[in-house]
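[audit] Reproducing an earlier prediction to check determinism. Same input, same settings, fresh worker. If the tokens differ from the archived copy the diff job will pick it up downstream; this log only records the rerun itself.
[audit] input (271 residues):
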Amino acid sequence: MGGFFAFLLSRATGISAFAILEAGYLLFGLVGLSVVAGGTARELAGRPERRRYLIVLVAGLPLGLVGARLIPVIQDAVAAGRLTWGLVTSGGLVFYGGALVWLAAMALGCRLWRLSPWPLLDAVCHFGPLGHAFGRLGCFFGGCCFGAPTDGPLGVRFPAGSPAFLQHKAQGLLPDGATTSLPVHPTQLYEAVGNLLLFVLLDRTTRHRPAKPGRITGLYLTGYAVLRFSLEFWRGDTIRGIYLGFSTSQYLAVAVALCGLFLLLHPEKRV
């Protein structure tokens, strides 16, 4: 069933199925970012510093994009044994690196502007899982972040030219003339559902009374770390890097979970 809608659109328009998948990736990614920005703006409504907070949010986005490239660049440089300009300018993006650098950039920007960072960070982390759910739908359409092969009923196939197809072809897992990948776990959809559940948890935390500064940030960092660490066991894209049996994101998730737990276990007054 993977790529079914793309194939239908491809038949109707004459555009390649993978080009349609890539367009879906971009569209859902922009929708997710808009959800986070819009939700944050609503959360900060009524605050006299709202305009400055939103400037910090937007100003931090380019640094977040740089952060999203950091992990792939480091992995490629380690694999190649050297760092080249080509490795810096080509390759994919990693959500974890981008999100963490964006949060750090916003925290620094607030401090430089003599603002408490917690209203902004808590608002972004409140709506972050909702926006990320849309982003993972984009990953599903784009074919990246795919799962391990499965014979289960939830398995999906991605079309020729997709990352899953190319990896399976390179590994010799596909017969000559194959037009789709092997059926794989739709880990993008698993994570989208997990993010929606995390958003519901965070939303309920703030529904009846405001949470203490930093609590939403701590809950988000811890909750997403647990979700990501668990889902990595179903991922199949080798490009994300596997070291001593665990992926790069799993090592990062452990560190992030410790930071999130620190915020939750030390709820002293923050300014």
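[audit] rerun output stored. Observation attached for the diff report: The radius of gyration is 20 Å.
[audit] end
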